[in-house]
Every structure is written in structure tokens, then in C-alpha cells.
Amino acid sequence: MNSKDIHINKNGFREYDARWLYPKDISLEGITTVGLALGTQIQKHKIKNPRVIVGHDYRSYSEEVKNALIKGLMESGCNVEDIGLSLTPMVYFSQFELNADAIAMITASHNENGWTGIKMGIEKGLTHAPDEMKELKDIVFSNSFSKGKGTLKKIDNFKQVYSNYLISKNKINKKIKAVVACGNGTAGVFAPDILRGIGCEVIELDCNLDYTFPKYNPNPEDMEMLHAISKAVKENNADIGFGFDGDGDRVGVIDNKGREIFSDKIGLLIARNISKKNKGQKFIIDVKSTCLYSTDEVLKENNCEVLFWKTGHSHIKRKVKQAKAIAGFEKSGHFFFNQPIGLGFDDGIMSAIQVCHLLSNENKKMSEIIDSLPTTYQTPTMAPFCKDEEKYQVVDEIIKQFEGFKANKTTINGKTIKELITINGVRFILEDNSWGLIRASSNKPSLVVVVETLTSDKDTKAVFDFIDKTLQATNKVGEYDQKI
Questions:
Q1: Is 367 known to be catalytic?
Q2: Which of 23, 80, 165, 171 is deepest in the core (most CB within 10 A)?
Q3: Model pTM score
Q4: What is the bridge-based pairing of β-strands 177-181 and 240-244?
Q5: Distance between CA atoms of 232 and 227, rounded to whole angstroms?
Q6: Closest by alpha carbon to 180, among 158, 157, 208, 159?
């Protein structure tokens, strides 16, 4: 490998996975170097000549990126088992099913076309956390690698093994008519068949694979995708609509009236359903999630505890395992189900299945179930541009400002701050339990802003305007991807 051909932008190593614009920010030789480093890291933590499962999503360049990664893994001494076109949760599942030492999935999830990336893990059911990402980055740039002669084995038709795992223990009694939208991403070859397999009548929406993503990015937080599902639900008189992201580890939900239900509220409904048979359990939620978890009467009646934690699939997975929680929920649509429901990792199809169980058990329409929750007024997740090299410093400054606002009893929409949660950016909670969040995005050059009030859209806008004014004063924050 010619060192001149190795190009790796160091900013691609993010909090819990790696993402680059390809080939602008990383060359194929750079990917191979990352494979060498990952193989070295796995052997440092596990054994010599470990077995590593790899898979890839449907982007036009994902297979060549995967092959470059495999080359590096093999040169480090890893024995690679390639399960081919995959969803990320299928790769997670394969580590349990095939009892492998580590996994690597080539995907940029819902990022725009042109991005590539790697989600990877060593311990079963977990993915790299910040410490492991830093260690991997250090190995890459230290140029100190294990050397060996690994092997490559192709695993055929693992898709069927994964599908059977989900279908076999999740049959539903009630006939549910579901719109299944995949945004032309990889979930299109998995989700419709699996949901049919458990007993749903499926109406497919953009389930044919097309790596150009001709309509919108497969992202269940994207309002364009949600609006398209809403239209299809109403036109087909469906019971539910599901929207899956590009690599199938997240889901968005539309009710039978075509209303877009933010995933944190879906998580709360699933938590309620789980708690009825599993009293006294813990649930983990991320700092972007609705305040309703903290005050929910059903969870209180069932003696359940709710813990806030850092946003990010890797962070929540680890917290679910560490706290021995039965489930974890992120506003982004990553849901995590521990034993006896699942194996601890995030799987969008499993999450959709849990919604189907909820519908089957409640014997009510989705709109009736969601209307049983108190009304809140939420923003979508908004992402104002902020440079990767500046975003964490900006957030640190914002935290200090909000500590000052709290100390000085500054009013936001006429209310003072009663609590600050700073485990991941700053979530400020006002005296009426309304709240706002500012944090750094883990995988893009942007911040993340979310607001929820219990009173009106007007109040939500007022809290957002306060945040926006504070951010603009830094002179380091640019355009939003979407804005209320």
C-alpha cells in the first residue's frame, strides 16, 4: 500500500462511529488502514486471529468500501465472515448467532448520499463508545498495527436467519394494516417481509432499493419522509405507518389519522405496555426525550424508574446494559430492548414489532392510544450548522451561559430555570416542566436543538427563539437543516 494514497480526515472519528464523505475525506487505502487499526484494536481486547463479522448497506460504493476494510482486517490477522447486504441490527444479531468476536458495518445510516461510515463493536450487543473511538483513532495515526494472515468466508442467506429470529417469537393476533416506508434505503428488502411474517397487511412505500435516494433521505426524523408516510396512511386507511432509516436501526411512527408521532412518545407508550408485565423495571431515555416519562402515572403505578442519559445509540446501549434496564429509548427512533424481549441493541424492525404488540394488546386505534398521553408541543430535532472543530467548545460556552441564567433567575418565556441536566450538552427545565436542549451532534458538523412545552406552539416558539438568540450571539452557528 502506497502511503501517498492513504488519506483519512481525522474528524471522521466521531463519538461512537466513523463517518466520512467518500472519497473526499477518506480514500480506499485510508479505509484499509482503518481496517488494519480496527483489527489491531480487536486483538488487543480479545484474542489473536479473532472472527469478525462484516456487512454493508445499499449505497453504490458501500461494497468497495467494505472490501477495502476487509483487506485491512485480514492483513491484521482477523478471520472475516462477510454476511453481505445487511441492516446494522442484522450485523449486531450475527455476533450473537455466530458467536463472533467483533463486528463492523459499512453504513452512513441516514446521512446524505456521498457519506460512508463504519459502525463497529467488540463486546456483544455494544458498539464503540468515545474511549474506544479515541483508541482506534490513535492506532490509525500511530501507524502501529498487528500483522497476520487472516481469512475471508462468505456467509450466504443470513438475511433469512435474522428474519426468522424476529418473526418466530413475535406473531400477532390482530390484523394490522401498516404502511412500511423505507426511503429507498436498505430496510426495503427486510422490513416489509418481516412485518408480513408476523401477521401485518403491508402497504409498501419507497421500498425498492435506490442508492440515489430520489425522494428524500431515509430518516424518520425528516419531516418530508414523515409527511409522505402520513399521506399514504390516510389514502390507504391504514392502522399505522412505519418509516425506517437507511440502515434499519431506527423507526418513525405515523398514527391512523396520519399524525406524525415523535419517537420519544412512542417509546413511552411501549414502556407503559412493557411495564404492565414487567413491574419494577428501569427504562433509559436520552436527553432529547419528552418530559412525560418523568411524570407518567402508568410507569409510577408499575414502580418503574426512568433515567436520563446521553444521546447516541452507543451511549444508551451501554447504559441499558450497565443499569440492567429492560429497555431504552431515544427521540431519534433508536429503541433498545433487553432480555427477555431482545438482545440489548437497537433494531428498527423490532421497535415496529413492539408497536404492533401495543396495538394488538390495547385493542384500540393508535390515535386513541396516543391521545391518552397528555398533550405537549414539541419541535422536531433541529440541526444548526457548527464546525466539527468548534461545536464542543460552543456547547461548553452555552452551558456556562445557562448556569448563569439559572443563578440570575433569568426568565425564558416568563419562567425561570428549575434544573439543568449537563450530561450531554445542556437540557434546561423550566418551572412548569417545559424544557429546551442544546448539544453537539455526534456525527455531523452541527448542533442539536429540541424544545418541548406543555402549553402551546406559541410558547414552544418563544423558548426556541431564546435558544436561537443565544446561539446566534456566538457567531459560530449557521443555517438550520429545519426550523420552526
A1: no
A2: 80
A3: 0.89
A4: parallel
A5: 9
A6: 208
Catalytic residue among 76, 86, 94, 109: 109
Reading the chain (484 residues) residue by residue, the pLDDT tens digits are: 556 789 999 999 988 899 999 999 999 999 999 999 999 999 999 999 999 999 999 999 999 999 999 999 999 999 999 999 999 999 999 999 999 999 999 999 888 889 999 999 999 999 999 999 999 999 999 989 999 999 999 999 999 999 999 999 999 999 999 999 999 999 999 999 999 999 999 999 999 999 999 999 999 878 899 999 999 999 999 999 999 999 999 999 999 999 999 889 999 999 999 999 999 999 999 999 999 998 899 999 999 999 999 988 899 999 999 999 999 999 888 999 999 999 999 999 999 999 999 999 988 999 999 999 999 999 988 999 999 999 999 999 999 999 999 999 999 999 999 999 999 999 999 999 999 999 999 878 999 999 999 999 999 999 999 999 999 999 999 999 999 9
- All cell numbers assigned to 50: 479473532
Query: Letter for the amino acid at 57?
Result: D
